[in-house]
Design a protein that fits this description.
heterodimer, A: alpha/beta, Rossmann fold, 10 helices, 11 strands, 37% helix, 26% strand, B: alpha/beta, TIM Barrel, Helicase, Ruva Protein, domain 3, eight-stranded parallel beta barrel, 14 helices, 45% helix, globular
Chain lengths: 301, 350
């Protein structure tokens, strides 16, 4: 079966980890890696793995898009430059998967809404914390209405690159918004803590939901275990550590995300849950591209 | 060096009782209490007071507790009663945002502590720049400083200076440091920072070192000291302002604060409103001993009771796991895991 050719924009932690996931895909084939630093480790790895590379940013890729048949691009740079990257690539008929918190396209958490996504030219993966926590919020909100949901993500310092560090406000806004829009809570809040402990701590996520009525403990517990199972299909290290803890109307769930150790060691589950979700989402669109259901059209020049 | 060498040195006292003190009150301070405190401190010549939720901007949450009022409501109540005192706020990137900082400015806040963990200064450049663009007195605030090396902390301080911070703080969030540690950290910063950049020290009294550490900081070159009237703050409290001012008077350090007015405020206003007397008890002393974030105190006490585990055991475990400020959710998680382990240990072997 022919595969859909992809480009990765951003050669940092997320882009490089994603490269490993794409290499294993049966639908997608990574052919280009785009960076801005010629000495970046990510670009060197991509080259070794047989990809074409450029350190000239998206502009270095654009002249080759048509000739090399690139149909899908992943942006793992920064919320500040995403729109420009997306506009340029969309104009060439390239479908964009956004791994920055820019969130200009529909938000996607695969086990929650992958099958409901419309045909679009840009889809957003929210944030690592969003991918790790929204399935839990949804697991509660599909049982009974949630007035407020709050998520706390603790991440190992070594797993957080400069792009994420420069986007903490966007991370907060995008994740809070997605907790409502995708998770189903009426109000949402996201907190993020970067911990430098040695050895590095595995990504942890705590999810609190305030239900409108007293929580149905049995139904919520069952719903949560089902959601966790769905996430484990693409992130095997997604694990319930403690909870659900019921205290009045508050439901507390304490999760851990261990990664596969593709690029960074297993503590960096935040990379895996983001890249695995992006890969799964892109595969769904890739299948639509291959079947002709999603038609990509370049703007006339 | 003898004490007389500090004679004539100027120190800016920055009061924390309406921010760090919120932690000691489970975030429950009323606007009336805030106004009364602010008036008293303004009259006593305290140059800066921090006013907000205990966790600063964005602090209202299940993680950190909900205050009865928004930060904006507190600022609107306090700002009109201040004549000379400047109002400040705390901003921890990842929790608070630049939009909230702009709102703080609109409501009369003119100084900000932009806080990161002691090794993560590079999460603060946008927020420090934003404070400067607003024309605010902008400090970088390196929390849990004891978890970085002296040289490492100096490197992080240098980054904050490069982002535009006018002051960089050595923040002893756990009340872990001894005076010689403070001397070493502040000296390391003084060695690398520009002469124009001020150094601040923010202490907690968990090991009974609040005053001694603050004086050590001044001696090593700090010119801003965070204190709190009656020590109202997380853990065993901050450096008590009235006592610090008294020590400064004796040493000839100039603070411009009215010592007797602050003593009266401590006695007449602050102590009567404490829910528990903020002091060195077995839990707060454990914070200092084990190097744990002071705000964890009341959470550990509450959850220790809920799960039947001594709070001291929970705090020691959190110290061992190197949990840092903002990870309050991990207190319940740790208690639950300890409970499972203890129950398992009581089962007979299969």
């Amino acid at each position: 079966m022919s595969k859909v050719k992809c480009a990765l924009i951003g050669s940092g932690n997320i882009g490089t980890d994603l490269l490993y996931k794409l290499k294993r895909s049966e639908v997608l084939e990574p052919v280009w890696m785009v960076g801005i630093d010629p000495d970046s480790e990510g670009l060197a790895r991509a080259k070794e793995m047989g990809l074409k590379t450029t350190a000239e940013g998206v502009d270095g890729l654009l002249p080759h898009v048509i000739a090399d048949g690139v149909q899908v691009a992943f942006d793992a740079t920064s919320a500040y430059v995403h729109k420009e990257n997306s506009d340029k690539l969309n104009a060439k008929g390239v479908f964009m998967v956004d791994l920055t918190p820019a969130a200009i396209g529909p938000l996607c958490v695969p086990p929650v809404n992958l099958n409901d996504l419309e045909n679009t030219m840009n889809v957003n993966m929210i944030s690592c914390a969003g991918q790790a926590t929204i399935p839990i919020v949804y697991g509660v909100s599909r049982v009974q209405s949630v007035e407020y949901a709050e998520i706390i993500a603790s991440l190992a310092s070594l797993s957080i690159g400069p792009g994420t560090r420069a986007n903490l406000d966007e991370f907060t806004y995008t994740t809070s918004n997605a907790v409502c829009e995708v998770g189903g809570a009426r109000k949402g809040k996201a907190l993020c803590i970067i911990n430098p402990a040695e050895p590095p701590m595995i990504m942890r996520n705590t999810i609190y939901c305030m239900t409108d009525e007293d929580p149905d403990e049995t139904a919520i517990t069952e719903s949560l275990h089902e959601m966790i199972g769905l996430v484990q299909k693409y992130v095997p290290g997604y694990r319930l550590v403690n909870g659900p803890v019921f205290e009045g109307r508050k439901v507390g769930v304490f999760m851990e995300v261990a990664g596969l150790g593709d690029y960074l060691p297993t503590y960096a589950g935040n990379l895996d849950i983001m890249t695995a979700a992006a890969c799964r989402t892109a595969e769904m669109y890739g299948e639509k591209i291959l079947s002709g259901e999603l038609k990509l059209v370049a703007e006339a020049v | 060096m003898n004490d007389s060498s500090l004679k004539g040195r100027r120190v800016l006292c920055h009061d924390m009782c309406l921010r760090d003190g919120m932690h000691a009150k489970r975030e429950q301070i009323s606007t009336d209490q805030m106004v009364a405190f602010a008036k008293a401190m303004d009259a006593a010549g305290v140059p800066m007071i921090q006013v907000s939720h205990g966790a600063g901007l964005g602090g209202n949450s299940l993680q950190h507790g909900f205050a009865p009022h928004s930060n904006e409501e507190y600022w609107d109540a306090v700002a009109p009663v201040l004549t000379n005192t400047v109002m400040s706020v705390l901003l921890i990137p990842g929790l608070g945002t630049m939009d909230e900082l702009r709102s703080a400015y609109d409501h009369g806040v003119r100084s900000v502590h932009v806080a990161t963990h002691s090794t993560e200064a590079d999460t603060s450049p946008q927020h420090i720049a934003c404070g400067r663009e607003l024309g605010m007195d902008t400090s970088g605030f390196l929390m849990m400083a004891h978890l970085n090396t002296h040289a490492g902390l100096a490197e992080e301080a240098k980054k904050m200076e490069s982002y535009g911070a006018q002051t960089v703080y050595v923040t002893d969030s756990a009340g872990y440091m001894l005076p010689e540690d403070v001397t070493a950290y502040v000296s390391a910063l003084r060695d690398v920072l520009d002469d124009k950049t001020e150094i601040g020290f923010h202490g907690h009294n968990n090991m009974g070192m609040g005053i001694a550490n603050s004086i050590a900081a001044v001696r090593a070159g700090a010119s801003r000291i965070d204190c709190s009237v009656a020590g109202l703050g997380a853990g065993a409290g901050n450096t008590p302002l009235e006592a610090f001012v008294a020590v400064c008077e004796r040493m000839g350090i100039i603070t411009d604060c009215d010592m007797f007015a602050l003593m009266d405020m401590a006695e007449d206003l602050v102590f009567p409103m404490m829910d528990h007397i903020v002091r060195i008890d077995r839990s707060s002393l454990t914070l200092g001993y084990a190097g744990v974030y002071s705000t964890f105190l009341l959470h550990a006490n509450r959850l220790g009771k809920k799960y039947g585990i001594p709070p001291r055991d929970i705090l020691l475990e959190l110290g061992r796991k190197r949990m840092i400020g903002g990870q309050e959710d991990m207190i319940e998680d740790t208690a639950l895991t300890m409970l499972k382990e203890r129950e398992a240990a009581q089962q007979p072997a299969a």
